[in-house]
Design brief:
6-stranded antiparallel beta sheet
């Protein structure tokens, strides 16, 4: 079985951030939400708009269900400017745009420490990695090759190991933008194991305008027909090398 190494089983380390940073992050998120709500009260096009001289409802029961739904969606939708800043940050970090994955944070991602549980990030990175793998398959052989790679038919990619570094706690509501990039030094022709290469990944928080986690992974080209790793050939290595952003 592939080897998985990760420090995800323990809470955020004191070396990663301290309680002060955590609390600052919560205050920052809270102040953003309050400012956004105040702006919405003043915006005539907003479902939250309260005309001058009027007061809001005394309780949520006074708000029609449809309007409550619209108001809720307005609160949790990431703004386009925030997503654009996230894309710029990932591009500056030389991430492959084909891998960019928007991961909405839901309330159930939290744990008893009142932030997104560490283990959830492995799934978040997985979603972006699979999207990136599909784009590789499409470049190698169109939709049929991408579908085969997803279904474990012929030669595809599997995860050998992952290491995650946590930089900041994340809380609901938020959206993470995640990207991948291959590490060039692991793709040289003289590599002792041509079936294995390394990638780096990063998760950027739209709410915090900052990177919140980084990952380093080893991926293996695996032949599902013969059930063993295999050199994918020069064409596959060329496609992966072509994803390195200069």
């Amino acid at each position: 079985m592939p080897h998985l190494t990760s420090s995800l089983a323990r809470p955020f380390s004191r070396h990663v951030y301290n309680t002060g940073v955590c609390c600052q992050g919560r205050r920052h998120n809270s102040s953003i939400s309050v400012r956004a709500l105040q702006d919405a009260f003043r915006d005539p096009s907003s479902p939250f708009h309260i005309p001058p001289g009027e007061t809001g409802p005394a309780s949520p029961d006074e708000v029609p269900l449809e309007r409550q739904r619209v108001m809720s969606e307005t609160l949790v939708q990431p703004n386009e400017r925030g997503l654009e800043s996230a894309r710029d940050a990932l591009l500056a970090a030389r991430m492959d745009p084909s891998s960019f994955w928007e991961q909405k944070i839901v309330w159930g991602d939290h744990d008893s420490f009142q932030h997104v549980n560490n283990v959830r990030y492995v799934r978040f990175f997985e979603s972006a990695r699979i999207q990136w793998m599909v784009s590789l398959g499409e470049e190698l052989g169109g939709q049929s090759r991408a579908t085969a790679m997803l279904k474990g038919q012929g030669i595809s990619l599997i995860l050998k190991s992952i290491e995650v570094q946590f930089r900041r706690p994340v809380t609901y509501p938020d959206t993470l933008l995640i990207g991948y990039r291959p590490l060039e030094e692991s793709l040289i022709d003289s590599s002792p194991d041509p079936a294995t290469f390394q990638v780096a990944a990063s998760a950027y928080s739209v709410a915090q305008s900052a990177f919140v986690a980084h990952a380093k992974e080893s991926l293996v080209w695996y032949d599902y027909d013969s059930l063993k790793k295999r050199d994918p050939g020069a064409e596959a290595r060329k496609v992966v090398l072509g994803r390195i952003q200069k």
